[in-house]
Amino acid sequence: MLRGTAAAHSLEGATTTLRLALRQPGYFRALVLIDPVFFPPSTILLWDLIYRLGLGYRVHPLVKGALKRRDSFESRDAMYANYRKKAVFRRLSDSALSDYVQSLGCARADGSLELCYPSTWEARIYVTGVRADLELWRTLPQLKIPLLIVRGAETDTFWESTGQMVRRRLHTAEVHTVPGATHLVALEKPGEILAVARDFLRA
To answer: Strand 174-178 to strand 113-115: parallel, antiparallel, or no bridges (unpaired)?
Structure first.
């Protein structure tokens, strides 16, 4: 099997890729996980309890905003203008935001634009996404390939304390923190991400 390096971001990318690497050890020769959504076991257990009590949609801090999110625009320019005003994207360059909008919006037959993935699906990911991650903590010491995790210093999805726990479970893991960056570090600091990943892979 031809093995390559996987580089991925967030829950759907980075956390899912880590799960695949642990279940199928021969798929990759190295992992670069960019701000994965990965919480300590105590947080996972607490959230699983909240979910089982039927409170997930009420309690999760991002669900209400996701369900209110506008999901259609008259054009790609209109979508860009709307997103340019949002605080969460304030650190993105114009070109990075343009690329982001390009990837999110799917064209309709009438020329308008809609989110490729509906806000209801986003909310569902928030509510259910971390419940199975105790498996990752149990199997993490079995990872035999190089692992680099790059996190934003101001992220809310991969805490500094989580990075310390990862290194205790897997001594070969490397965790790099990018100053002045959030969960969207890949879009905010692409040059630094590239440089850090290159140095890691060359080593």
So the answer is: unpaired
